[in-house]
Amino acid sequence: MLDSGLQLLLICVVLVFSITINAKPLTIAVATNFLTTMEELSERFSSDKDADLTIVSGSSGQLVAQIRAGAPFDVLFSADQKRVDALVELNLAELNSRFTYANGELAFYLNPKNSKDLSAQEVFENLSCDSIIIANPKVAPYGQAAKDVINQIKSEDGLEESVVLAENVNQAFSTTHTGNVDCGFVAFSAILAKSTDKQFFYKIPHEYYSPIKQDAVILKSSKSPKLSQKFFDFVQSQEAKDLIREHGYLVD
Amino acid sequence: MNSIDFSVILLTIQLALITTLLLLVLGGPIAWWLSRSQNRLKPAVEAITTLPLVLPPTVLGFYFLVVFNPHTPLGSFIVFLTGESLTFSFQGLVVASIIYSMPFMVQPLKIAFDKLDQGILESARVLGANPWVCLYRIVIPSCIRGIVSAMVLTFAHTVGEFGVVLMIGGNIPGKTRVISIAIYEHVETLNYESAHMLALGLIVFSFLTLLVVYAMNREPTVRLT
Question: In percent, how much of chain B has pLDDT > 90?
Fold first, then answer.
């Protein structure tokens, strides 16, 4: 019985250390706004490159915090430039690899189950809803942009009480979509992905904010920098640019 | 059910199984010591092993990230030894789960050991049985219910972990995406069908687990006629 106990222990020790991913792996950390687009990009890339792509999503701030704590990512597709700057400064990312892959646009989304007769644009202009959800500005660039827009419409008069913070911009979308809040600031790409009815969303004019420049960078800790660069080349190809544009982004 | 969810279930079971077995080996002696010792430090040790029960997972997650960050001396030493950081890896989840599920192993074991008749053990010793024989012939058979409940509870609690895993494991498919994390992601991406499948499965599993524990711990009714 002692022997079988030892065997069990040995087996589980071996199990612990045997979990490694084989083939040619590439782990992509992507800001949630770009997740669905990234899934399509990676599908097209891996079909002719025979690579094993793993996608991890979160708010840009969350992903950068994970990278600083040693997360095993190869590349980061952030939703801003600021955090990429910080990674380069900390010597955690390759400066030469960085590029702007998309310019994101912000949309105001009205819960489709609401009883209001107003259009999304009318509600947006007065921010006349009981609860508004935005991504947490501290970690999500889309949340920061949303906060700036809100401050322009209503300069500090108790609006903060009605603002709910989501962990990332996709959570802001799903919470509004399911009717748990009245309205939300979301990524325009999310609106396109769910083919939303026109009266329920309003693309926020650029006079309120400037489109969100989103940068990608290869991380110094990457175990497959060559494959990372190949993927970056692909994302900058005309085929990929067209796909990104189709998903509701502006591409230079 | 798609193949991704199947790998999520497999990974969760793997994590819970490894955690349970390692904790049994680690928690057993601790529970034994807590049950037998008169040491002045006993209340402190008992308090420490029970801490994970009352602390929010963020506390453990935070210190785990601080201590095992690959840029710290200890973290970089572990990377040097194993080639991989404990943060955002399966191995890291095992280490954190061992700490986090500790009370679920130690407490039931200690209670079972407390009930053990000291006289039988002493007689066995006097008759020349060595400690290993005592363990296999007396302790394990008499405490089997407590041992099984401890293991089942530890397993179930590890399956149900969320906060710690999210903080120190992130959400990496095949490495750290366990059932609870997958449910969270399905809900966020409005993939309710997959969320239901995993969530309902987890409810049924947890109910059956507790049913087994309570059915087993029911005292047999003794009738004196």
Answer: 67
Q: Out of A21, A35, A168, name the one closest to residue B174 (CB).
A: A21
Chain A residue numbers with beta carbons less than 8 Å from the beta carbon of B69 are 68-70
Q: What share of chain B is helix, strand, coil (3-state, %, to 5)?
A: 75, 0, 25
> Which of 3.40.50.2000, 3.40.50.300, 1.25.40.10, 1.10.3720.10 would CATH assign to domain B3-217?
1.10.3720.10
The pLDDT tens digits for B60-119 are 999 999 999 888 889 889 988 888 889 999 999 999 999 999 999 999 999 999 999 888
- Give A201→chain B minimum CA distance, Å: 18
In chain A, pLDDT over 70 holds for what percent of residues? Answer: 88
Pairing of strands A212-218, A99-104: antiparallel
Contact at 8 Å (CB) between B201 and B159? no
The burial of B41, by beta-carbon neighbours within 10 Å (0-12 exposed, 13-18 middle, 19 or more buried), is given as exposed
